[in-house]
Structure formats: structure tokens, C-alpha cells
Amino acid sequence: MRRCLIVAFLLFPLLCLPGSGSADTFTCLACHSAMKGKIRADNNVLIDVNVDSDKYEGSVHGGFDCIMCHKQFQSNPHNPAKAGNLPRNIAALSGKLSSKAKADPVALAACVECHDEVYKGWQDSAHGKNIIDKRQADGAGCLDCHGSPHYITPKTAATSMVNRKNIVKTCGECHENERIASKYNLGTHIIERYTESFHGKKFALGHPNAPTCISCHRSHDIKKWDDPDSPVAWENRTVTCGKCHPGASKKFVAAITHKPYGKDNPIPYYFEKGLIVLLFGVFAFVVGHVILEAFSEIRDFVFRNKKEDGPHE
Amino acid sequence: MNKGIPAEYTRFNVTERIQHVIMFVTFLLLSFTGWALKYPEVENSRWLVNLWGGPRMAGIIHRAAGITMLLDFVWHVAYLGYMLATGKMKLRMKTTIIPLPKDVVDMVKNMLYFVGLSKTKPQFGRFSYIHKFDYWAVFWGMGIIGLSGLFLAFPVQAAYIFPSWSVNWIWEVLFVMHSDEALLAIVFILFWHFYNEHLKYNKFPMSMTWITGKISTEDMKHEHPLEYELEFGDKK
Prior knowledge:
Number of helices of chain A: 17
Oligomer: heterodimer
Low-confidence stretches of chain B: none
Shape of chain A: elongated
Strand order of the largest sheet of chain A: 1-2
Low-confidence stretches of chain A: 12-22, 308-313
Number of strands of chain A: 2
């Protein structure tokens, strides 16, 4: 009896607000906005069942019906649709994404319906190939950079993970990750070296022209640097750097490498060590001299009670 | 005081004073606009850089001030060459800015006086070792910070000059040179120059010589006894 009351209560908004928004979305959110925690699916994957309805409505996809992406749940509540009922391209793509999207690969594949071009570029990218060809769970898919599909905000919004202010941090989620770095033989120092560079320093201060990761490496269709299609491939760097530095030459583009700073590159490393010795040597002399002199002047003033004369006549 | 000895002595002429003013104005501008870029991760850096109209404007001011300072330096060196070539300035042991063995001896003597091991201060000429250190530090800074700054401000053009075997490390070296030596210059000025020309009990809040170019002959007698002797020794 009590359960019936609760269901009736949850469905009450449907009666109050006929026609406002999609009935399908309301039907789903009636439960999913109230449910908390995770459930274990048949394939042993934990799925977060909560959808914050306010945040969802504020997102760029807030006007969508749930089943526009969750296509396998055509008949409520949760009977998966037969494969034949799915659009052919989404069914095919969802199969490729199974290593990444354990819970609902169909929903992840559904992004392609609107974001066709971007999705194509991503499938050929270093991130996409790692998921599709190498069947790995690592490698950024849509959600790793854009966040939960229910709460995606435009990239101009400060909350967006791909907003200019947040993009370096977002890339760093994986590119500063020790496990991923050792598995794929990447450096964990890349973000750090960027942060220490003039590009990164200007970015940190809010310079409007300072490049972020994606300014040079591209985003959806990102390639490894040794891929001839990569904008940072050796052959393409003069063009890429030339976008901001007209006349960039082969010698100029060698400036940016993100290589770790240390003994591998001995000249600047030991040069800086030498400068630091000089720096502290001069500090010590200058500060010591000033303190001693001040001390002697106070002493003269208090105890000798006269200015020390120059030539005694 | 004997007659024939004026109350004041012109230590720096108007050209030298203008060169000094350009030098310290550009130095202060460079320090304030460049500091934030050295420590961008510090919260106050954004505030500091926004005082100058944001990072882009701070960069423009920094470059303009840097070029002005380098031009001031070139002017100074050319001026010295002209003054020496025309004989308006003479090289003399007691008035030269060039470091001499006597300066090392003076420094040791002065240190001994500071710690109380000597009862008399060393006798300085027109420029004591303290002044000489102050002066030549600027030359060092121009070579290290000025040159690296010029390369960093025009990296595309600079890359044409650099030999190809240097391009894998030259930028790191230039950045370290510019950044670390600038810090050294700021600390040096804050301690050395500020103490010696501003904070000393007889100079506070500052020596007015930078505006008037003049020093009282009484002060000159105490601070630059050898030069005093040279100028007025026969008038006593």
C-alpha cells in the first residue's frame, strides 16, 4: 500500500504539469531524480542511477528525451530493444565502444547522430583508436573530457571541463596519471613542463592569446606527434607554430618539446645550478655587507658618538 | 672651511642624471611587470599583472621598457666613448669607475672596520668599491638579462641567429638567464643600492644627488676624501 502511495506521489508532477516538457523524460526522472547510489548491472558494472533533474534541464541537452540516446530502452521500463530496432550505424558503433562504455555503449554511440563529423575525427584519433582498435578502457571518449552527458554545458561556460580555463586540468586527468603514463610510455611531466613554459605561465595569468594543449595538438582528432597528420609532427610544426609566430623556422620550432627538465638536457640544467650558486653567493655577500655596515654605523652612533672622519687634519 | 672651496661639488652632469632616471624608471617598470610571470601560480600574481592592464598590456610595457633600457645603456656607453675621446673625461686612479686592486684592499679594510678589528675606515676616491659594484652590476645585467630578454621578445628572429646545434637547449638557458638574473638584480637593488643610497642615516630618505647632481663638499670630504684632495687639495 505504502509503495503504491510513493509511486503515486512521484508520478504526481505529471498530472500537475501536463504538456510541459516531454512526458518520457518526466517518466524517467520521476524515479531517477529521486534514486540515489549505484546498482550492479548484469555484466557486473556499477551504474550510477541518479540524474539531477535541475542540472539536466540546465545542460545543452536538457530538452532531449532520455530515449533519444538511451535507445535500447524504447519500451519502458528497462527491456532492451532488439538489436534490429537500433539504427544500423549506432548499433555498429556501440559494438566498437564496448571496452569504454561498460554500462550503455548504445547511449555513447548515440552522440554520433548529431555530432557526426566530430565523432568521425575522434574515431581516427589517438584516443579513439586506443578504444576501438586496441579495445582499451583508457583513452578519452566523449564523457572523459566533456563530463557526464546529462550535465554538458557549452564550452564557453565556466563549469565546462573543456572551457579554456579548465582544459589543461582536464587533459592532466590522464596525462598526469602515473598508471596511464607508464602503460602507454607517456611522460607525467608534460603538464608540468607546459606550466613552467612561457605559454603555460601566460595562460596561468589569463593571457587571452596563450595557447592551451588543444591550440597545438587539436582536440577530437588529436594524433600522436609522430603521425604525419599531427599538427605537432615535425613536418607540420612550422605551420602550427606559425599561427601565432609568423615566420617560424625549423630552428625556432625546436623550442617547445615538453621534455623533462633535468640531467637529460645537461646544459640548461647545470647552467641553472651555476646561476643559483652565483645568486646565493651574491645574496650572501650583499646582505652580509649591508647588515655588518648597518651594525657598525649603529655602534659608531651609540658608542663612539661621532661621525668617522675621513682624512684627519 | 677655507675660501676658494665651494659649498657644493657637481658630481654628475645633467646627461648622466637623465641616463640614471631612465635606467631606474625602466628598471622599476620591468620588475613590476615581469614579476608576475616568474611566479604565475601565486594567487597575487594575477592581481599584480592586472594592475598593469592584464597580461597582454604588461607584456607590451615590459618589452617597451626593456628596449628603452637597452637604448639608455647604448647611449651611456656611446657617451662615455665620446667623453673619453674628446678628453672631457680623464682616466685617473682616484676618480675612475674601473675596478682596481685598491678596491679589494678597501673592501677588506672596510669589513675589518665593520667588525671592530680596525679603527679607521678606508679612504675612497670618487667611486668606492660599493659604487663600483653597483655600477658594474648594471653592465652584467645588461649583458645577461638584456640580451636574453631581447632574444625572448623576438624569438622567431632570434632563432635565425642561433646555430642549429644549440636549439635544443638555448631557450631553456635564455629563460633561466633572464628569470634568475632578474631576481638577482631586484634583490641586489633592494639591499645594496637601497641601503647605500637611501637608508643610511645620513642619506635617509634618499641622497638628493640623483636630482641636483651635487654633493656638499663637507660630505665629499668624508665620503670621497681622495677625490676631495685631488680637486681641492691645493686650496686649503
